[in-house]
Amino acid sequence: MDTAASQSSSSSIMFYDFLDKMRNPASLNLVKSIKSFIVSFQFSSPNPENDSKRVQEFFSTMEAAIMEHPLWAGATDDEFDCSMEGLEKYIMTKLFSRTFAISPEDVKIDQEISEKIHLLQSFLRPEHLDIPPFLQNEASWLLAEKELQKINAFRAPREKLHCIMSCCRIINNLLLNASMSENHVLGGADDFLPANPPQLHSNLKYIQLYRRQEKMISEPAYYFTNLVSAKSFIVQLDAKSLSMDEIEFEEGMQAAKLDSKVSQLEALQAQTDPIPSTRMHGMKSKIDGRSNYPYMEAEPGELTVEDVERLLSLYKDVVTKYSSLCRAVRRPSATRTGPSLPIPKGRDDILLQLEGQAQMIREEKAEINPGR
Which residues form the VPS9 domain (predicted)? Predict the structure, then answer.
């Protein structure tokens, strides 16, 4: 059983113990207080800072009530703590949709961070982050990534925090073991650069606001702070943050953006392809091993009126990709010493051919439907 699974099992035991006590008739007043808080919270206007304060104050109130309750008479500190963990999980599971990533600004930041990591992944290498070869243990990094990627499988702040701790422990152990064997000092926050965890900003904010404050100490606080630092490192990352020439960094980012845009266009094209017929399969041909374009081998007489919308879409696709490629190729590079890439030729011929085919289709359509 892996670390996260073990922690999840332990959390489930605590949670069901808490629910068992809440089913006891003697806990009726506690149950009423909990349900009343949840209902009133859900009907209030979202305000993350005020919401956090309300939740933390309710935890404190319930903590005092549970400590004095007969059902917990003689309970050990661990048993009492388990009940409080169960309470946090119950409350925050019920309020999750009302408290997690509810701000458009948070959603925007999540998207920006995810897109930036995606772009960086296409060209950054460990040496650019000053990660030496003795720390480039692929198995350990993949295991750490796996733990962090689980974060959205949970709703309770405690369980989300444990995903972070599991990830950071793996990386920290790698750094510690490698440093001891190679006699090197430990790495910094940039060594915790994550693969691309989902909704990184919103998850960190959610944990910070709604994890019981008395639990954000010691080891949890240390690892949480490490990931917050890693997030800040990503947001601010530029060529100066890396062992990389500024021109090389900008070229890498531009190429990654272009590739991402092309991939998005291809995905959209695949989703909106309205031509399932076997006739059009013979009209497709590979271009640069990347895109499939119908009509490439077609003759004007083979096209039908129904092909107009599809052809127009492909025309726009070609122009968009060509324009993006030209901007990337023509970008000035004052320090480049090698020969510039040649500007693609034949654009006008391609566009004229497409325009000619489109005109023929329009004329054919006019003949078929003269009244329109």
Answer: 107-243
